[in-house]
Specification:
single chain, alpha+beta, Rossmann fold, 6 domains, seven-stranded parallel β-sheet, TagA/B/C/D_pept_dom, hydrolase
Length: 1016
Amino acid sequence: MISYQSIVKYRKIFALVHIFLLLPWPLWGKAWALEPNYQLENNLAAGILGIPALWTLNPGINGLGLTGKGQTVAVADAGLDGGNMETLHPDLKDRLTGVKDFSGDGWGDPNGHGTHIAGSIVGTGAKSQGYIRGMAPEAGLYFQATYNEAEKNLRIPSVYDLLNDAYNAPGQPRIHVNSWGANFSDGIYDWNSYSLDKFVWDHPDMVVLKSAGNGYKTAKPFVSSPGSAKNAVTVGSTEGVRGIDTGSDNPGQVVGFSSRGTFDGRIKPEVLAPGTWILSTRKTNPNLEGDNYIGVYNQYYGYMSGTSMSTALTAGSLALLRQYLVQKGLSPSAAQMKALLIFGTRILPGVSGSDQGFGRVDAERSIIAMDQGDVKVLDEKGLNTGEELTYTYTSNGQPFRVVMAYTDYPKTPGIGKDLVNDLDVKVTGPDGKEVYWGNGYIDGDHLNNTEGILIDKPQKGETYTIEVSASEVVHGPQPFALVYGSLPWQGTLSEVHDNELTFNDGQTLRVNQEVTIRLTDGSAATEAAINEIPAGAEVYLVYGEEGEISHLDALYNTIHSKLQAKEGSNQLVIEDGTRWSLAEEAKIFVGDNELQWSELPLEAEIELTVNPGDDKVWRVEVKNLPDNSPYYSLPLSEKDITIAIQNSRSSGKVVLSAADPEDTSKPVTLAFAAGLASKLVSNGLPVELRLPGLSIEIPVGEFGRIGKSEEGAQLQLRVAWQTVGEQSLPAADPFMYLRPVGKLVEIRPTLVWPDGSQLAISSSNSFLKVTITSPLGSTAGLNLQRLGTYRYSELSQVWGLVNIDYNPDTGRSTFYTNRFGKFGILEASRTFEDITDHWARTDIEIMAARQIVRGMAPQTFAPDLTVTRGQFTAMLVRTLGLSEESVSPAEFSDLPGDYWCAGAVGTAVKMGLVSGYGDGTFGANDPITREQMAAMLVRAMRYGTEKNLNESALNPIHFTDEENISSWARSSVAIVAQEGLMKGREAGGFAPQEFTTRAEAAVVMVRLLSYRGNNW
């Protein structure tokens, strides 16, 4: 009888042969000679904002598309990279036109925020082959550094002076970015708002952007100061599309943290842009403790979230809009730029106007409406009270939008209403009866100096009258900007048939052959025929005077990679670890032949066609097949499991073993039918899976996750080994060298159904006990004290430390994890420039390699600086391998929950390692005395062990200054001295009240590790 496993095996082989035969001759005839491109366009926010279409737009003058050339953006932020032109990030080095240091202590970036902001605007992508770049990669950057390290605060001059400095800076910046906010004002029109408004009133061509703030779900939900300024463009955040968490999977939703609204009810923010998991430039000399990255891509790029990120993306979009207007011979005002930006925004369905303002930025809609459509962009000189100007517009039957914006006179805080000069806009229909007022207010909006009107279904061929009137102008005349015309139509293409386009909402549109079509793939554009537009492209349509389609822009992205896993029925995991969801209409092809989801083979080289607006995959093409038999299958029969269950009654666990494969260079699959899981659950004991060089102990509850829907499936644990030689592996710390001990191991559990469909299991509900065994002799020549177990993060693409409990006698490392992936036993090397000749160099390097101590700066350790209570507590927690608590203990009034060592202190208090002062404070920044350190060390010596420290057997203290040792510390000093963890100082004294250096603390930690290793 043919076994179930054999059926699955032969079905897979048949499927691969079948797919191979379906490949077109030019492809399979030379399939194995292909050189796949595994690069990925990672700056997904650009696609959401329509930016790639502008990069490829033919501008006529420079021939390079809209890239920000000729524009300079000023940024006021904490600092920029290392504050040194020689070592400035390569993506920013050629873009910087000047720096002004308002901080007083240099223009370096304390936390990565300013560097990230700058990269999102003008980053060239030099260190990513152009894949991760800013919105305006050829614009100039003028940077104003404001963070003072000693004061731990921003030194912001008056907003007027800040803007004035930028206005007169090299490159003549006319866009200014402020991703900072004052914490003393919450949606109130204050003196910062006044200062900003006055500057723009005096300099009407300066566009000033302000982040809305990240405090919506707090006691201060309104926009932060000076975001309430009338003449600012205040920017809030939508979610991104990376799908990393629930805050990054829906670009049509305002993210929860994004602040909104003002105290008097004005529209703030005006616009939105993506703000979660934004990928941009990272400091070249990172500070692992102080930097604010939420994820690291590599040593040059990292992820951040916040309205700051949204503001930077919007600033880059504005630089492109301004470049376009200038190339048209215009000198745009701030009001004109604001109105044009708002004209193209996408209104998010189902989101209230108070949350989204005028919608999410779409720079492509703004530009294409001018470049190919009928949109008028006007800067009018002004109106006095009672005056009005009228304009007419003949409708082509498509949605019609009007945006009026003006720079209002600054208002004295606390006196009267915020709006000083009051202009209103309205549209009157062709019958004279239908009247549409700005922002939906009847008889005019008397709060806001930006007003919009959208008419979804105007009457084709009929004339509408637009009227801008001055209700009250106190300081006049009041200039204004007006943008009006038909909005480009937009949708996601699902099918092309002859000259008909069918979209995913079911709408079908016919296109004449005379229509110009521009096809943009990433950052490359071509003129195309209609049948060349791929399904899934984001299409922008411009209509002519008679309502016919006159121009079409289609945007899409192409991604080349390898298929790592399939999750559920619509998610792909590719080689860099990112997940991509298939659109409902997605299709899978080999050549011209369509495949089913279950037939798509793992490890195949694939090409994805992706919609840039929501990053859904619309087409998967198999470009190259995997090996026919990439895995050895080691199926476990029902008999094997039954015997293991019987044996578990004496051993306390079910042990399932696999024999050594014939070819150890190939991965192994340990497989058994999922229907056997119920037997394991009923037995109630943990299950240990043993493979060559690896064992995994799984709580039995994990098998309870396999329900009736998985009947007939196999649970496969795939284990692959990889030899990487002597090469250095990437670490989160770019100055750390990681060298593998033996082979790396990759663990991938998967459910596989009889039809070939699969579900990759990326994490477990419980922590699993994993033991990796390195070959004997593999540690020869290595420093055993620098060995640890590391896990590779597909998100950040670096190796992170899991634990440091490696046993050189057995070659084993045992750790607990609830995440699967790639693991390895690695030797770490880390040094600092200022310890070359230091007496404690060896111990400092050991502790740095084990990530127990860190530098004060990327390349300096400062060994002779005094160690603080907070620093020593953090070292102690890391030495013991403890996880840090997420919040600090409530009893310490001087320790905020977000302070760098609050998590370590919380853990140390919970575990009884430290305590605070009697007045309810902890004193994290106080120097630690030697007797305090002795007391904490003794608690650490006792932690987790049943061995008693017999104080009655202690030798008498023989320090010359023993009378100075506090009574509460005498036994602790005796213990650490007797066990060799601490020694006396010069002249035979212990110096109990003196302080300890960072170097001495590192040495003590090495001795603590040695003590615990010998006494457990």
